[in-house]
Amino acid sequence: MQPSTSFTRRAMLKRAGLGAAAALAATVPGCVPASGHGQTELVWGRRGQSSGRFLKPRAITIDRNDQLYIVDTTGRIQVFDRDGNWLRQWKTPETKNGRPTGLAIQHGRRPEDDLLLVADTHYYRMLVYHLDGRRIESKEIGGQPGRDPGQFAFVTDAVSDDDDCFYIGEYGDSDRIQKFDPDGNFMTQWGGTGRETEKFVRPQSLVIAGDVLWIADACNHRIQRYDISGPTPRWIDAWGQQGQQPGQFHYPYDLALLADGGVLVCEYGNQRIQRLAADGTPQSIWGAPGFEVGQLYQPWGLVVDSENRMHVLDSNNHRIQRTRLPA
Question: What is the value of pTM for the model shown?
Answer without folding.
Answer: 0.89
